[in-house]
């Protein structure tokens, strides 16, 4: 029997988070109970931790954060036939209604009734267990680790960006911002066959990591004029496509100047500000295509196939690991140590083996 109580990290209000005993969720007929093996800290979790809100989503009741998780199926509802006890799975954290026009058209990430983990009022999975509808839990192939399963969540954002931006193998790609989303977008681009990738970030360690992942050249926006640098390296023209992940207002405004005429710009990173100045005359005159990216839809299965066979390098973004009990320490690092942390992994059930940043001593 699985205990009726479990440990979970509960955020009461900004900066007040504690690991407590809470009632363990019980799976409904179409759901599975998953024992969480590991779960990442996302920028959105850090934002709820420090600000208590993101835009229109406000933490009004105590909430369990965390939505980048993988683990084992330990119980299945009576209608579940696709999964069995013991299956290793990745959790897709946004369960859509399946009935609205967005869901029916395949764009269920736009569903107004989506229940997305760790977005108020829905609990996430910084806990020993979580429940998810069985069609949102994906079996991991043997060669994929739990960590890679958890990282499928942020990876899927990059994968979705490549699909929306019609990325093709021969494209010259520029990725603005090399946080977890940007670095995983590098790998998503590689999964799409892209071989020429440029990228920028103000943090030296992140640029270094991008180079190790196969990015051709990196730029420092605090020291270089990015559109000019891109033009210099790409025949004076610019990239075919720019993927903006930083959410920095200057980078967002510059993104349309980093691509050649007829190019595409994909925006992932959201800004805190109301509006961002973008030169729309340039967009019109150069016949650019602009895309917005909100999470992802129908990506997990494809992403797993694209990464199967030992091709995944997703784990390279993990810089720190912590047991759930040390969640506050982990969040403080995520908030304040951007120069030597990228993705922090939390282990609710055990002490992780790797506790230090693999490259912090090189920073
Ligand atoms: Zn996330
Ligand atoms: Zn829907």
Short description:
By secondary structure, the chain is of the alpha/beta class.
Write the layout of secondary structure elements.
Blueprint: E1 5-13, E2 16-23, E3 31-40, H1 43-51, E4 53-54, E5 57-58, E6 63-64, E7 68-76, E8 88-91, E9 94-95, H2 101-104, E10 115-116, E11 129-133, E12 137-139, H3 146-164, E13 172-176, H4 180-191, E14 196-200, H5 204-212, E15 217-219, H6 226-233, E16 239-244, H7 249-255, E17 259-267, H8 280-285, E18 289-292, H9 300-307, E19 318-323, H10 327-336, E20 343-347
Parallel strand pairs: 13-14, 13-16, 14-15, 16-17, 17-18, 19-20
Antiparallel strand pairs: 1-2, 1-6, 3-7, 3-11, 3-20, 4-5, 7-8, 8-12, 9-10
Helix pairs in contact: 3-4
Bound molecules: zinc ion (2 copies).
One zinc ion binds at residues 42, 44, 67-68, 153-154.
